Automatic annotation (TrEMBL):
<feature type="domain" description="Methyltransferase type 11">
    <location>
        <begin position="52"/>
        <end position="150"/>
    </location>
</feature>
<keyword id="KW-0808">Transferase</keyword>
<dbReference type="Pfam" id="PF08241">
    <property type="entry name" value="Methyltransf_11"/>
</dbReference>
<dbReference type="InterPro" id="IPR029063">
    <property type="entry name" value="SAM-dependent_MTases_sf"/>
</dbReference>
<keyword id="KW-0489">Methyltransferase</keyword>
<dbReference type="GO" id="GO:0008757">
    <property type="term" value="F:S-adenosylmethionine-dependent methyltransferase activity"/>
</dbReference>
<dbReference type="GO" id="GO:0032259">
    <property type="term" value="P:methylation"/>
</dbReference>
<protein>
    <submittedName>
        <fullName>Methyltransferase domain-containing protein</fullName>
    </submittedName>
</protein>
<dbReference type="InterPro" id="IPR013216">
    <property type="entry name" value="Methyltransf_11"/>
</dbReference>
<dbReference type="InterPro" id="IPR050508">
    <property type="entry name" value="Methyltransf_Superfamily"/>
</dbReference>
Length: 202
């Protein structure tokens, strides 16, 4: 599996590696405001298993596990640095045994069919080489009635850095179309820090 992972790039936030990647993870890990609003929107079921793609340093995973003592999480990230940081975060929370975090990429989730109640991705989907394939794989992993949530930095965020990182409307058009093709109905949500699309697995 690790031989198939994408290589780190010069941007340490893309696939964090080495000392700069560790620093990028530390920077990302300091702010969980986007993840708090994403969690509110996701509104996970009690005892849900949530799968996060590209979890980075693990802020959303931490919130998911802290919110419900019976929740479980699983997920993939291609960065060994991020997998290590996220695992440490969940260990500090005392919740490591409720987490199955693996090295991996969107589109090749190493989890069985109908494994999760929710699949979520925050500030990562624009980095995936094949969004359509990634969404089809997310649907495979979702139980019927489970939800997918794709969030990315909002163009209307109060934070300048997030506005700078916002995707053009054409990307949202493509993302919405890809979601619709796999899941059917799609809803778009303008949150404070992120724009998000949600859909339900038939
Ligand atoms: C900007 S960080 C966001 C991390 C985290 N979701 C957050 O909100 O703080 C992007 C993350 O996506 C991961 N990533 C990059 N390419 C990916 C891919 N093809 N599949 C899954 N994750 C990927 C990176 O390793 C990195 O952890």
């Amino acid at each position: 599996m690790t031989d198939d992972l994408p290589r780190a790039t010069l941007n340490p936030f893309r696939i964090p590696s080495g000392p700069l990647g560790r620093l990028a993870g530390w920077v990302m890990g300091r702010d969980d405001s986007p993840h708090r609003e994403v969690l509110d929107l996701l509104a996970p079921k009690v005892e849900a298993r949530s799968c996060e793609i590209g979890f980075g340093p693990g802020q959303l995973l931490q919130l998911l596990l802290a919110r419900d003592a019976d929740a479980q999480v699983c997920g993939v990230d291609p960065s060994p640095v991020m997998v290590a940081q996220a695992r440490r975060r969940l260990q500090r929370l005392g919740a490591a045994e409720r987490a199955d975090l693996r090295l991996g990429v969107a589109g090749a989730l190493p989890f069985p069919d109908r494994h999760a109640d929710h699949v979520v991705a925050v500030n990562t989907a624009a980095m995936w080489p094949d969004l359509q394939a990634a969404l089809a794989d997310a649907r495979r992993v979702l139980r019927p009635g489970g939800t997918v949530l794709i969030a990315w930095h909002s163009a209307h965020s109060p934070r300048r850095i997030q506005r700078t990182l916002a995707q053009p409307e054409t990307w949202w058009d493509e993302t919405t179309a890809a979601l619709r093709q796999v899941f059917g109905k799609v809803e778009r949500h303008e949150l404070t820090y992120t724009t998000a699309c949600t859909a339900t697995a038939p």
